[in-house]
Amino acid sequence: MTTAHICIMIAIIIYLGAMLFVGYLCSKQNNDTSDFYLGGRKLGPLVTAMSAEASDMSSWLLMGLPGLAYLSGIADAGWTAIGLAIGTYLNWKIVAKRIRLYTHVAGNSITLPSFFSNRFRDDRRILQSIGAIFIVIFFIPYTASGFAACGKLFSSLFGVKYLTAMIISALIIVGYTTLGGFLAASTTDFIQSIIMSIALIIVFGFGVSVAGGPDAVISHAKSLPGYLTMMTTYNPETGTEAAYPLINIVSMLAWGLGYFGMPHILLRFMAIEDEKKLSLSRRVATTWVVISLAVAVMIGVIGLGMTEAGELEMLHGANSETIIVKIADLLSTHGVLPALLGGTILAGILASTMSTADSQLLAASSAVSSDLFGAVLKNKKKQETMLTDRVTLLLIAVIAVIIARNPDSSVFNIVSFAWAGFGAVFGPVVLFALFWKRTNWQGALAGMVSGGVMVFVWKYLVRPNVSFLNFYELLPAFLISSVMIIVVSLATKAPSKEITDEFELVQKKMAE
């Protein structure tokens, strides 16, 4: 093993050890299920902001987005970044404070599905159960993709077997999440967002320097037809440009709709200690997201400039997503300190993956233990319910490990599909529950089911067979869900006075 690899391993081991230590510290603050799954609503504004965005971005920020820009120019990556930035801001602006207040007023709900049942007085807990099932359907494979990403990173760096690397990564994530629950996941996500930021800064500065400076990077990018414009795209195979269709722009912008239905992000809104501090959280989160997305896109352009300068080999297809890993490897050959910085970059990639995997793991386990089996456990002692919470989390993790065991599986493809699933199943219901007093439980149920079904129908039946409808499944599924909520709510009995009075109470609190 080279000196560079030893330095990289030291940086990563320190990082992983710190995450486990945080989990141990947070475990002392978990007294019941509310603490384990919502941190007792004690999060500060900075932790709320940065943990929400770290759990959102995942390895896609440090791998997917730069790789997309590297390969075909800034159009795809740029429009996606714009959609995500707009979605982030709107989610913080119109949803965050309202859902924090409403979940507290509506039975002190600690999960998104429980909020739906409490909000609409669904005594049979149909909404809670259906919501939990959808969370499990979309989140377990999503968690598996995070485990797989960590395993592939370690495997490629140190030459260990993929399965061994993946299991060790999963054990670390499961370890601190099982110990500290939501508070540990949020605190580690806050730390991970800082590491991700440092990684982006190091890669940006080193990449520009090696590529010959900003002028050289921009000059090379301009020489490629269609590479630096938002209305055209570059084809690396033919060296030609092509028009960027309007339908693609709509598809990329539609990614922003997903935010309204992401359980692991909405939980951060629900968990802040003081809803009046959410405006600070919004400013911090939006600023970080805009800067990080812009830098990630630019890293793809810089990486291509490094290739032109002869510092990196040309990357093709899915390998373009390893551009930051390649830059970290190159940096680590320049001495001990650069090797430690390279290790920090790779720890950043690991952090971005872990910050999403831990939140997904927690959301999936809460769906099972709290939403599906909560009625069975409600009369148990606190110690028994906490044990059940942790055992459930472990079982969910085992299933995710089994799914991720094959290194050649296409588990990564589930990420955009899962994003569409959550956005369509929960997004419209969240918005109508918060903003339309006439919404009832039948409408909410119709919206959830129709949104979930339409994601599958559009993905596997419509897109492959109808060329002019080949756009991201989130948009049509979100629209269908919204229409069904309105139609079914109006066609069925209006909500009771108790429900509408509670709605008005939240409106009044919002105005205070």
UniProtKB/TrEMBL annotation:
Kindly give the InterPro entries that the UniProt entry links to this protein: Na/Glc_symporter_sf, Na/Pro_symporter, Na/solute_symporter, Na/solute_symporter_CS, Sodium:Solute_Symporter
Q: Where is the protein situated, by its record's location annotation? A: Cell membrane
Q: Which UniProt keywords apply?
A: Amino-acid transport, Cell membrane, Ion transport, Membrane, Sodium, Sodium transport, Symport, Transmembrane, Transmembrane helix, Transport
The record's Gene3D superfamilies line, in alphabetical order, gives: Sodium/glucose cotransporter
| Annotated Pfam families | SSF
Query: Catalysed reaction(s)?
Result: L-proline(in) + Na(+)(in) = L-proline(out) + Na(+)(out)
PROSITE patterns registered for this protein in UniProt: NA_SOLUT_SYMP_1 (PS00456), NA_SOLUT_SYMP_3 (PS50283)
Name the domain of life.
Bacteria
Q: Does the keyword Transmembrane helix apply?
A: yes
**Task performed by this protein:** Catalyzes the sodium-dependent uptake of extracellular L-proline.
Concerning its family, UniProt says: Belongs to the sodium:solute symporter (SSF) (TC 2.A.21) family.
Protein name listed in UniProt? Sodium/proline symporter
Name of the encoding gene: putP
